[in-house]
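Tutorial, part two.
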Amino acid sequence: MDNVFSNAQRAEVLTQALPYIRKYNGKIVVVKYGGNAMINEQLKQQVMEDIVLLWLIGVKVVLVHGGGPEISEMMSKLGKKPEFVDGLRVTDKETVDIVQMILAGKMNKTLVNLLEMKGGKAMGISGMDGRLIEAKMKDERLGYVGKIVDVNIRPIQDLLEKGYIPVVSTLGCDREGNAYNINGDTAAAYIAGALEAENLFMMTDIAGVLRDKDDPSTLIPKMTVSDAARLKEEGVVSGGMIPKVDCCVEAIHKGVKKVIIMDGRISHSILMELLTDEGAGTMVVGG
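Running the prediction step on this input gives:
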């Protein structure tokens, strides 16, 4: 198999990546990681490899992760039935404890460990550490689901300055010490905005924004914030894609240069997006 890809071709690939490596060296990119790319073990290994590779060439990568399926699984084991209102998990006091246990504990440390195994230097924190994410109750009906009030980005900046890959679990807390479950996409948008990141990658289980949701060939490769508003009105952006696109627009307004909704099911989609002309998914930019 190795002979198929000659050393000359390998060298050619690296030289083609050079302008991109130069462009992103020292820049901050935020990766929102969850869904299928997190459940599939092979994809998980590849995402970690991509992140470590970017870190090794001098890109400052911040990994923001969720863990919805794992939370639901643990709730079932403990005899609690997951409930959702408008796509958001209803989170009572007991559930927020489970969320904290899975996100800040199991998921966060597993990802930190994987990054270290791949040769990276990673440090895990939650949105509760250093009051990174200050939140308040979003809606009484949802219980401890948080609306972000403020982001104190200093803990992440400190880790980046010390050469770590920060791995952030999306929990928040209020001044009274209550913990809140925070939507991962929203948290990633706020964090990327506060960091004025070059790119925010939103890894999902679809190819990107499609004109026809059943036809991957109708992918919209690039859209502006105003295109996004129009596509929502036209009903092209609908259902579960609405909050995702809203988070992209929010991130752009907060200072992120570009946001990419990308297919986390594709091997090395992050590298394709960052280091080639091809790209992978839908890019959202200002204007």
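The longest strand covers residues 28-33. In part three we will examine how such features are distributed along the chain.
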